[in-house]
Amino acid sequence: MKKNPAAQALGKLGGRARAKALSEAELSEIARKGAEARASKLSAARRSEIASKAVQARIAKQQNKGKGKKA
User: Fold this and answer.
1) Given this model, what pLDDT does residue 69 score?
2) How does pLDDT run across 34-61, given as a tens digit for each residue?
3) By the 8 A CB rule, do 47 and 39 touch?
4) With contact defined as beta carbons under 8 Å apart, do 27 and 19 qualify?
5) What is the 3-class SS of 28-66, one letter each residue?
6) How far is CA 5 from CA 8, 9, 12, 14, 47, in A?
């Protein structure tokens, strides 16, 4: 069964309209709940792998930031 494109478009608009009406604190709370749900489904090894990549990215960003400056 194919999805109805009109219904999909309305659903997308509804989500965006709701997001515009929410405060930063409400959006942050929704994002936090989503992150917790995602993390609960990941294995400990996968969470560790994601965290390691994040640390490497932060280190690389700091090192690249220093290279562009002149003394």
Assistant:
1) 57
2) 999 998 999 999 999 999 999 999 999 9
3) yes
4) yes
5) HHHHHHHHHHHHHHCCHHHHHHHHHHHHHHHHHHHHHHH
6) 5, 6, 11, 14, 36
